[in-house]
């Protein structure tokens, strides 16, 4: 089992920045990739970014690459999501997830483990 705990969400004004963190524990050796998803009210969960845990390859959702940056510190078993130039449309619960393989890192169904989510609210 892998446990994931997100932090760093909050209320921020449009144009500001946030860095979300996700700390992994447990059987971290089983992780192939770490991903970030978000879910706004009454919308489906949306892929934001992912990174292969040991190889360093990164993946971004459509139009995400401009303002979102995923990174990690393997020594700390932590993955980060930097969000710049925040917009009210970025308001959502942001989830961290861990996948055990690299097939379809953009897909919700590929991830075996999920954190509890952290709320990001952007005011205009």
Can you describe what's shown?
- The protein has strands spanning 2-7, 10-13, 18-26, 33-39, 46-52, 58-60, 68-73, 78-83, 92-99, 111-114, 118-123.
- The strands form 2 sheets. Strands 2, 4, 5, 6, 9, 10 and 11 form a 7-stranded mixed sheet that branches. A 4-stranded antiparallel sheet has the order 1-3-8-7, with no helix packed on it.
- By secondary structure, it is mainly beta.
Helix and strand run:
EEEEEEEEEEE
Largest sheet: 7 strands, mixed
Structural class: mainly beta
Portion in helices:
under 10%
Bin the strand percentage.
over 45%
What is the number of beta strands?
Answer: 11
From the structure provided, what is the oligomeric state, counting identical versus distinct chains? single chain
Low-confidence stretches: none
In angstroms, what separates the terminal alpha carbons? Answer: 40 Å
Mean pLDDT figure? 95
Separate helix tally: 0
What would you call the shape?
Answer: globular
Q: From the alpha carbons, calculate the radius of gyration and give it in angstroms.
A: 13 Å
Features:
124 residues, mainly beta, seven-stranded mixed sheet, four-stranded antiparallel sheet, 0% helix, 53% strand, globular
Q: How are the SSEs ordered, and which strands pair?
A:
Blueprint (H helix, E strand, L loop, with lengths): L1 E6 L2 E4 L4 E9 L6 E7 L6 E7 L5 E3 L7 E6 L4 E6 L8 E8 L11 E4 L3 E6 L1
Parallel strand pairs: 2-11
Antiparallel strand pairs: 1-3, 3-8, 4-5, 4-9, 5-6, 7-8, 9-10, 9-11
């Amino acid at each position: 089992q892998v446990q994931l705990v997100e932090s760093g969400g909050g209320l921020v004004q449009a144009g500001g920045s946030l860095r979300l963190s996700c700390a992994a524990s447990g059987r971290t050796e089983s992780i192939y990739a770490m991903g970030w998803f978000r879910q706004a009210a009454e919308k489906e969960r949306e892929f934001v970014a992912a990174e292969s845990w040991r190889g360093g390859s990164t993946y971004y959702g459509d139009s995400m690459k401009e303002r979102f940056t995923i990174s990690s510190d393997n020594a700390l078993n932590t993955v980060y999501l930097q969000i710049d130039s925040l917009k009210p449309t970025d308001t959502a619960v942001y989830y961290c997830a861990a996948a055990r393989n690299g097939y379809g890192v953009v897909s919700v169904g590929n991830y075996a483990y999920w954190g509890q989510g952290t709320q990001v609210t952007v005011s205009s």
